[in-house]
Design brief:
Largest sheet: 5 strands, antiparallel
Helix content: 10-25%
Strand order of the largest sheet: 2-1-10-7-6
Structural class: mainly beta
Distance between the termini: 34 Å
Number of helices: 2
Number of strands: 10
Radius of gyration: 19 Å
Low-confidence stretches: none
Strand content: over 45%
Order of helices and strands: HEEEHEEEEEEE
């Protein structure tokens, strides 16, 4: 049997699949710390995120890593949030085996708006690409005294 026949007959290595599942846990608290709204949201992995993850396999990765989370009042596009309101540095970023968890926090007075979208970015500057993941959801009304925490979990399998 030639090599092509062998490849097409015995190709278990062609059947391996890698997938990413990304979800957000959004918690809005009032000025006393009481939960006003809580959501679990499945979200979208963007091309920039896939490229960024694959870039990490290189000996010298060339793409920046996620370090910021943003919220907005529009609907996410392919590379940016629709109407970005605020972008903050991640509060924390950890990994346990194939699960990466990133947390973003907005203090009282920060990002006060009718929030409908969120995204993960590899650059600090607002309204600037690259957005690795995005989520859109029904309105979360963040008042001036409220705090908002978004925990993004990305699981590879």
């Amino acid at each position: 049997m030639n090599i092509l026949g062998w490849l097409f007959e015995k190709k278990p290595f062609f059947r391996e699949k890698f997938s990413l599942v990304a979800n957000c846990h959004v918690v809005l608290r009032d000025e006393h710390g009481k939960i006003k709204d809580e959501r679990m949201i499945h979200n979208t992995m963007k091309n920039a995120g896939i490229y960024g993850i694959m870039d990490q396999f290189l000996a010298s990765p060339t793409l920046a890593k996620v370090g910021w989370m943003a919220v907005g009042t529009g609907t996410p596009a392919a590379t940016l949030l629709g109407t970005e309101v605020d972008r903050n540095a991640l509060t924390s970023k950890t990994r346990s085996n194939a699960v990466v968890t990133m947390v973003g926090d907005w203090a009282a007075g920060d990002a006060t708006a009718a929030i409908t979208e969120a995204g993960l970015f590899d650059v600090v500057t607002a309204n600037t690409v690259n957005m690795w993941c995005s989520a859109s959801f029904d309105v979360i009304n963040k008042a001036a005294g409220d705090t908002l925490q978004i925990t993004w979990t990305i699981t590879g399998s």
